[in-house]
Amino acid sequence: MNHKPNALPTIGLIGLGNLGNPMAVSALTNGYKMVVHSLNKSEATNLIALGATWVDTPAEVGASSDVVITVLPTPKHVREIMIGNGGVLEKMKRDTTFIDMSTSSVDIANEIKTLADPRGIAVLEAPVSFLAKAPIGASRTSASLQIFVGGSKEKFDQHLPLFRSLGGLPEQIYYAGTNGAGYGIKVLLNLLWFIHAAGTAEILAIGSKLGLDLRVIQKALCASPTQSNFLQYDINSVFEAGNYDDGFTIDLVCKDIQLGLALAEKTGIKVEVAKVVEQLHLRALAEFGAKSGEMSVVKLYEQAAGTLFRD
Hints:
The protein is an alpha/beta fold. The protein has two domains: 11-178, NAD(P)-binding Rossmann-like Domain (Rossmann fold, 3-Layer(aba) Sandwich), CATH 3.40.50; 185-305, N-(1-d-carboxylethyl)-l-norvaline Dehydrogenase, domain 2, CATH 1.10.1040. The protein is 50% helix and 14% strand. It is built from 14 helices and nine strands. A six-stranded parallel β-sheet has the order 3-2-1-4-5-6, with helices on both faces. Helix 8 (181-209) runs parallel beside helix 14 (296-305) and helix 12 packs antiparallel against helix 13. The longest helix has 29 residues, at 181-209. The N and C termini lie far apart (54 Å).
């Protein structure tokens, strides 16, 4: 364990997929020592070459790290790794920190925190969002991170250098508030993105049937009050390459929408738009399969229009 004053903490990272792996690369290149574990060791090959230490079990990550980070697909995976058979929390030392960077559930986070507090282990959530920036007509070629942090302000300040080293843009690392606030912002962000995806696809389908040029529609809408990141950047991969982004799959989209609906239910707000959007994405899931891309709802509208949305 790393106890020298001003020394960088040893980071343990569990989950080395499309998000966890580039975050680990960023931290390693910024000088952090890392202990890593994932479902498949092959996911760690590039990280080991950069100096990361592979361990065979999640529990070994807990025992070897000052800060444990999880980047996992669903809340149940986070729970299983931390306080289920994964046994990570049990192996963590006093005065260490657990940071969940998944899009997860407040209820499971509270369950973990209840067990962590008496052990002197701090708990933060810090879910992330990619910021895709590319000109209209160009591929989505770059991404930087927004990070939404929930937990104590003291721990946020302590780990701010780490969040920057993981790829967070300085002006896009938000202290959201107490535990749960970070999850709340991320879940609502995702929910609105899925609403944008469905709404944009519907407009494009109408435009296509009217014989309008979809790129002209895009340019006109992006210069108007209807502009969105989805319309300006994300849809380009469909236009250019028929790529619906299977780096994040439709089954996870449906999971995230359901997290949003569960959050809304606690408020008493009737989320009629979100429920329609959920049904559209569930149709895409049934039509194209669980591992089809996160923009598969666009495919539904291509079918309705009888044409592919392509340059």
